[in-house]
Every structure is written in C-alpha cells, then in structure tokens.
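Predict the 3D structure for this chain.
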Amino acid sequence: MVSNCLRFARIKSGISAAGWLFLAEGISAAGLIALNEWCLARRNPAPAIASKDASLGGALYPRHRELVERSGLLVFGEKFASVLIQITKRDVAVLFFVLLAVLGFPALILHLLFAVTAFTLAFALKR
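Done. Predicted structure below.
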C-alpha cells in the first residue's frame, strides 16, 4: 500500500510544465471541436443551389456548404475551395498525423488539430 502511494507521488511529480500545457491544449481542442459541431448542428442548412461548376457538389454536406459559402473561402475560387476541403478531410488528416508521428513530431499533431479547429470555428461563427 505504501509503495503504491510512493509510486503515485513519483508519477504525479513527474509531470512537467509542458505536460500540463499539452493537457490544457488537448482539453481546449476537444472543447472547440464540440462547440464547432454544435454550431454546425443547430442550423438548418439551406437547400443546395446547383451551380455551373459542381466541383463542391460531392465534397460537402449541406451544412458545410453553407459554412464555406458564407466564410469567404470562395473568394479564392470554387476549385481552390474544393481542393482545400479534400485535403482537410478526416482520412487525410489522420494519415498526415501518422506521418508526423513516424517522423518524430507527435507534439505537432495536437498543435495542428487545435489550430485547424480554431480556424474552422472562426469560419462557423462568421457565418
């Protein structure tokens, strides 16, 4: 019993300031993701309007289409927005995160997740 308490005390004191920072950043990222999903879910999307260039047509759910249209991202063109959406989908992000981990940069995964989530939430709130 005493040895378990000593082991817990060593583990507890072994957490560095960077560890607490990562924990806080992870909890903040999770909160931003939840807030972002709540913002997207509470709005009823407008019906999709067919355009001449349907490059965004298959790439977006209706709620995301409204987000992209009102965010100002289409200023760069629908083709650019389509490519950006394709390379930021979950499967590509997970592959990129695995590559970062293999290359020895696991801390960047959390920082990038936090940054992308913050930008996405800013776009959602802008609309």
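The mean pLDDT is 75.
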